[in-house]
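User: Could you check the structure of this?
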Amino acid sequence: MTEAAYDERPRRRGRKVLVGLLVLLLVLVGLVVLADRIATGVAERAIADQISQELTRQQASAAQPEVEVGGFPFLTQVAAGRYERITIGLRDVKGTVEGNSVDLPVLDVTARDVTASLDTIRSGQGDVVAARVDGSGTISYDSLAGYLDRPGLKLGERDGKLSVTAPVDILGQQLTVTGAAEIAVSEQGKVALRFSELDAEGLPNVPMAQVLLNNYARSISIDVPLPELPFQLTVRGVTPRPDGLQVSADARDVPINSVS
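Assistant: Sure, the predicted structure tokens are below.
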């Protein structure tokens, strides 16, 4: 056997060992990733169950919460006691405020910079705190119109404004009133509606007709209370959208092991 053949055999053995080590490394990485994803899934389900329980306490209902714990690896975050973000998606939220039904087709919440010690995770005792929580939800126009309590009244979005259409009897004539509202968040956290740009085609050209139209505008200019939001969220702004009134909210230094 030649000297070259002897040299080739160790090289082959070396390559086989190297390939074997690489395969073993990939398997170990895969197992670590799998374990990390399993742990993440357990945490996400636990958070979803807690939120469902809190919604029930608030006499509200929704589809099963969609929870995602962000950042990778998850187990490293557990060991450090700090999590990058936790996102929560709620769909078809239904609640009651002052006897009126409130529908939020969408409510998305993101908690950032969440801290929780390993002992807290193990025991379930102690504080889990988010440095910042942001929320964005949509209130259906039908729910909003329910507070105005005017038969036939419809709300929507037109040119970025909250629009209204409603049948109104003025001086014995059935007219269709149209217009837009200024909207804002009041100091009490309610949605303030102010209808000051109403018109009605065919409105009689007499002072009393305009007085009646103005009275109608004042009657539907109200402050609409919002349902209690989770995570101590405070409403900061409202924007009309085609699918409903979009509400933005936030909170700081929020304990999230109780979502009330």
